[in-house]
Specification:
This protein has a two-stranded antiparallel sheet. It has 143 residues and is mostly helical. The chain folds into 2 domains: 49 residues; 68 residues, no CATH class. Helix 2 crosses helix 4. The chain is built from 5 helices and 2 strands; from the N terminus they run H-H-E-H-E-H-H.
């Protein structure tokens, strides 16, 4: 059983998948940072600091007026955190668009690499060997 497991792990597909998952996790951190640290502040600049994260509705419990979502949760209140959900959707759309643009660029690079280079125009090689032999034959017949 242990030898079968070793064979399974040693197969290329499993190793490729493991590498893909590790790279994907690292890429997720990069894209999340891109969105949180670069794109969202730019969007906030143009939308006047639009941030729905702290918008919620108290379903049960008591929360001081104007308390943040975190303070409401710490107070033990049951909250309907619709703002955090809206921001998660916005962040997802931004991340999906960034990933789409990256994949689109990678596909263009791959297509350019796979496209065979344009062949240089072949110069006229002149008459073939058969053509020359036929000319010689015809010249001998005439002469």
């Amino acid at each position: 059983m242990l030898s079968e497991f070793r064979e399974f792990i040693a197969k290329g597909n499993v190793m490729d998948m493991a590498v893909g998952i590790i790279i994907g996790a690292a890429f997720t951190a990069i894209v999340s940072s891109l969105v949180a640290d670069l794109i969202n502040p730019l969007i906030g600049l143009f939308t006047g600091g639009l941030d729905f994260t702290n918008n919620y509705v108290v379903l049960a419990g008591e929360v001081p007026v104007g308390a943040s979502l975190e303070a409401a949760r710490e107070a033990g209140a049951s909250v309907f955190a619709w703002g955090a959900f809206v921001m998660a959707i916005i962040n997802f759309l931004i991340i999906a668009f960034v990933v789409f643009m990256l994949v689109r660029y990678v596909n263009k690079v791959k297509a350019a690499a796979e496209t065979p280079e344009e062949e240089a125009p072949v110069e006229d090689p002149g008459p073939s060997e058969l053509d020359i032999l036929m000319e010689i034959r015809d010249a001998l017949k005439r002469g």
